[in-house]
Design a protein that fits this description.
single chain; LAPTM_transporter; cell membrane; extended; lysosome; mainly alpha; 65% helix; two-stranded antiparallel sheet
Length: 225
Amino acid sequence: MFSPWDRWYSTSCCLCCHVRTGTIILGVWYMLINAVVLLILLSALNDPVQYRYHLTSSELGTDIDVMDDANICIATAISLLMILICGMATYGAYKQHAAWIIPFFCYQIFDFALNTLVAISVVVYPNTVQDYLQQLPGTFPYKEDIMSTNNMCLVFAVLLFIGGILTFKAYLIGCVWNCYRYVSGRGSTEVLVYVTTNDTTVLLPPYEEAIALPPKEPPPQYMEA
């Protein structure tokens, strides 16, 4: 009897590539994004005057540092950790080491849970959308037009947008999980199989190794004197 998880198991993703290839592409993509963020953060540490953001006094009445050195250092450490996790997933999918994929899968679950909490907070507190729009700078395009829209329409649009993101993230989680199952299954097939009959027990190698074995040479013929 198949478990419910087996119904969603597939070795292909995005309708065109293998789950291993998809996981490798996803890991490389995340590494590139975090590498760009890391470069920006390191530039901000080297030249804080140019990259430090200030809210003008005309908006809040005082200058407030949005990102100070401590926050930049924390963000830099997080970016380095993310590059390490994504690199482990890429290496694990390429070399077929299932344990290396687990940290990246856990990060995906954590990120999905955070986005779900954001969607729940929008449903429970719909006025937070208007509060967020009011905090945007005055130069933000179409700010006045968006704020003049009905609050329920804004909440519906935000939920629709977050729902699309959650659906896409759930699909990526499924791809990485299928890659983990595939790699784990490949490792389990390397175990020798015991076939037991009524009288004897035969030790069989894996199917791939049995095919790769060279044929045995026939014994020499008996020569009569």
